[in-house]
Amino acid sequence: MTGAILENGDEQLLETLRRSLDQINQNRIVLPRTKLNITAYMVDPNDSFNAAKLACKLLDEKVWALFSPRSEIITWYVRSLANEMQIPHLTVSWNYRSKYLYNMNINPEDEGDKTLNHEQSNQIGGVTSLMPNGEANLQWLGTVYGTSSLNNRTNRERFRQIGNSIVTYPSVQQFPIEHDYTVNLFPDSNQLSEAFKDFVLARNWKSFTMIYDNNDGLIMLKDLLRISSEMKRRRIKITVIEFPELPKLPPTSVNVNLNPFQEYDRDQFIRTQNVQTDFYQYRKLLKDIKKTEHNIVLSLSQERAINFLRQALETKRMSEYDNYLIATLDIHRFDLSEFQYKTLANITGFSLLSATGQDDFGMMTNNRNRYYDPFYGESKLHQVTTTEALIHDAISVYARSLDDLDRSLGPDEIVEPFISCDRTNKWPFGSHLMKMNGITGHIAFDSHGHRVNFTLDIMQLKQNGLKNVAKWSKDGGVTSNANYTFYDSYKQILEAMKYKELRITIPPNSRPYIYLKDNHEEFTGNDKFEGFCVDLLIKITEVFQKKFQSDFKYQIKIVTDMQYGQPNKETGEWNGIVGELLRHQADLAIGDLTATYLRETAVDFTMPFMNLGIAILFKKTAIPDPELFSFLKPLSVEVWLYLASAFLGISILFWILSRISPYEWVSPHSCDPDPLELENQFSIGNSLWFTIGSLMQQGSDLAPRAWSTRLLASIWWFFTLIMISSYTANLAASLTLSRMAPAISNVEDLAKQTAIQYGCRPGGSTHDFFRNSNHTTYQRMFNTMESNQEVYIKKLEDAIERVRKGGYAYLAESSTIDYLVERQCDLYQVGTWLDNKGYGIATPPDSPYRTPISNAIVVLQDEGQLYELKKRWWVDYGGGLCADDAKISAAMELNIENVGGVFVVLVSGVVMGCLFGIIEFIWKSLKIARDERESIGKLMWFEVVRICTGGSSSRPLNPAQSSSNNLNNASGTNGTPVNEQLQMNGSGLTKAPSFTSMSGQLSPSDRTVNVANSPSSYDYNPRYNNGIMSPQPPPPPHPFHQRQQPSYSSYDGSTAPLLSPSTNSNHSKSLSRVNSNPNSGLKSPSSYSTMY
């Protein structure tokens, strides 16, 4: 047995109860052995005495659960009775705590209360600020009829108490009454209010107006009133308007002034408004809402909400930028078909049930009577109210709980309730029935029996009817469905743009972006304009037509006040282009409009179609007078001194190494095979000449022969190659840049000096950049500009003229400066960008056109058409007149740090050359000492003395001639001196054989002459005449070398040519000649070699 107490007029709810019980009885899965029935009584909503009698009567009939009506008075009594008797109590009414909300945390009415500041306003009634710290972000406006406005002190205090109690209302856990046996399937008021708040935050509304007609609606939206105080980073401006419903009175035909805000007789005024069907009531309400406000929350009854939307449509307040949130759970019951095709307005609401849930219930429709409705589709969901669905849920939960009790205890152990109002006994199984699990959606209750953790469907009006575009839950917040966005589906936007002509506002004379043609009087419409942005709009139209299968129609107009847009410091209202977008006087704005942080707080921007930054425009420096010694500028004084020192050091080192190395001493005449002295080609003068010739990249007819001098020469040549190349390159750059060396090279140079003034256009993005920057340099520059307001120039033409006069630098976007320097050759851009930003197409907040336009810009960027457009307007159309020296980078002189590595290589080569020279000297000294059996120390000492004391470049062939202690003097065995002569071989000088007896014969070994290749001279053999070496006359010149290789003469008078290094290898071996004269008397000479 189930008992129910309903209000008179709730016959439809009673029918829902019976149908739900019939469905459970027919479904044998739940309670297969039990049949449920119901006993219901109808009472007047205010008749609590009769309701108490009927409740006791139901207890006497042994009911297992009680259903209470929506009346708060009756529900409160039934709730108390059920808790006392421990009988399950189910209700589906609006949260009862709303009735007692005003009794909590209400401050006493005292004039010293600082929570609310009463102010006067030009709007209807007074304006009450309800914000911490006195910030007027929340406004309480009076009712829309004049006799009951906030001008009345009583009403003003009532609003103050209601508003203050809502803002300071604590969490639900502070409610003092526990309801252990009562469950309310209606969503908890706190979580429901949180759902509306999450929706507003997800939509990123910067402001909204809330309209309500009763206190319950205000309580349902209480979290919206606390958004501004909870938001730390941004504030949301909230306006609250009470719009109560007037009492219905019979109409009258008396003609009176229809202005409802003048003091007339109240009855006469109400009758007049009834006659006019609330015409002025709605119209005046819409008029009071600011035109810049496009987000409206309606907490009105279904009929009044529809009427409000109709008036909004007639007053053109239902465009694609307007958002209407209807605070109801029965949005599916609203007939919005008349707004379905006429507008793109966003009409949104919440629903606790869906078509899928209705089919699961199987309660109000079946397959036989289902029909197709063009607005709701193939469903009768609009016939099911939220209350009816909650009743079905309550019956289902109740039946499932009974089934769980039956399965856990068994039918024999369950005792029927035997209780009444006259007894104090309780039913022991009431607590078991409170353990409920829902089967239709997620149904959960808190400790007070209130439904929590529910899920709401966010429904939005589309051209094909209401669609579920998102969901809300306690844990996940607002989550969008995959196929829809908050504003509209992408496909629907493209379809609507086929029939929409967008209004585009542009800045005045924004060359080369968009501007009027010189002969614009001859054209009409968009043909009056030209520029980069005009071509960009044409390209976007082609993308919409070819790729999006849509259209992009527009009408261009110049902004009325000729301003880009700045907010008013007092009112916060924007002027210029941004103001027209906010007032919806334009749909788009295009031009050199930078997407700054301040502007993005007011309007939205598409993807940037051009990236840029702030740069400096300055005049090129005049060509200076040429300097006499400008050729010295490529190298610093330090480098010039190092270079001169290297030249002298290498020259002296050449002279020393050539004297040390034995391979640099050669015969002064190449044709003389028997020279009396040797000559060194590297005198001190020749060494200087060889070094300077290499440095100047010229020849000197001097070729080193020894490995040491060759190595030193190679290192010097490498050194001179690097130095001359660096000097030549830097000299060319220095001479080129000498005529255009800039007075400033970057922004730091500009900020440090005071001779050159600098400025920008006031009120623009560049000015905002310096004003809001935290960089020390930029702050100093901003203070400098603010101290002299004359540096601010509004028109670009005036700025160019002032820069050309000199002494002034203009700060502007780099794209504009690039355009100017391509045409004005006396101007150039200084340094690099100060920041990075972009130009975008501006749209009103939450504009549905932003996404498709951004996609079109991305397509143009991927295809490279944006680059082609900029090249066309920046270079092809009148550009490219100036050289590429517009951007100057100064060429500095080379310091020792730049060329120090070349000097290191030079020093390394010098060390290696000296090391090779010493090795050659020691090696030759060891060889001579070994052959002569002389002391190596003594021999090296004499050679060092000779090198240090001999300044001449020639020396005698016999070293004995240059020393008092001739190493070559020796005595024979008979005490007679031996005449010793020298002959040349492949490795140096060798002593001619000594003759002790003219009649002696030569042995074969004594008659052997070694011929080898000499690196410094042609090979030759001496010829002995009577014991004295005599040279062989040179042969005639060779046809190729202009001289022939010398020949040798044997002792018997035969001659043969000497072998050269290119002769066959068989002939390069030792060549022996034996004297065939037996009477020569020669004996085998002993080999005696000296160093030279």
TrEMBL record:
Binding site for L-glutamate: 594, 599, 765-766, 813
Xref: InterPro entries: ANF_lig-bd_rcpt (IPR001828), Glu/Gly-bd (IPR019594), Iono_Glu_rcpt_met (IPR001508), Ionotropic_Glu_rcpt (IPR015683), Iontro_rcpt_C (IPR001320), Peripla_BP_I (IPR028082)
Biased composition annotated in UniProt, kind: Low complexity: 956-976
GO MF, any single term: ligand-gated monoatomic ion channel activity
Protein keywords: Cell membrane, Disulfide bond, Glycoprotein, Ion channel, Ion transport, Ligand-gated ion channel, Membrane, Postsynaptic cell membrane, Receptor, Signal, Synapse, Transmembrane, Transmembrane helix, Transport
Residue ranges annotated for the Ionotropic glutamate receptor C-terminal domain, each copy included: 501-876
Domain Ionotropic glutamate receptor L-glutamate and glycine-binding: 512-583
Highest taxon, organism lineage: Eukaryota
Compartments, record wording: Postsynaptic cell membrane
SUPFAM superfamilies the record matches: Periplasmic binding protein-like I, Periplasmic binding protein-like II, Voltage-gated potassium channels
Location of the region described as Disordered in the Swiss-Prot/TrEMBL record: 952-1092
Compositionally biased residues, Polar residues: 977-1029, 1060-1092
Ranges annotated as spanning the membrane: 639-657, 715-737, 899-923
Topology in membrane: Multi-pass membrane protein
Marked site: Interaction with the cone snail toxin Con-ikot-ikot: 771
SMART domains: Lig_chan-Glu_bd, PBPe
GO CC entries: postsynaptic membrane
Site (Crucial to convey clamshell closure to channel opening): 744
Gene3D superfamilies in alphabetical order: 1.10.287.70, 3.40.50.2300, Periplasmic binding protein-like II (3.40.190.10)
S-S pairs: 825-882
Similarity comment: family membership: Belongs to the glutamate-gated ion channel (TC 1.A.10.1) family.
Protein name: Uncharacterized protein
Source species: Blomia tropicalis (Mite)
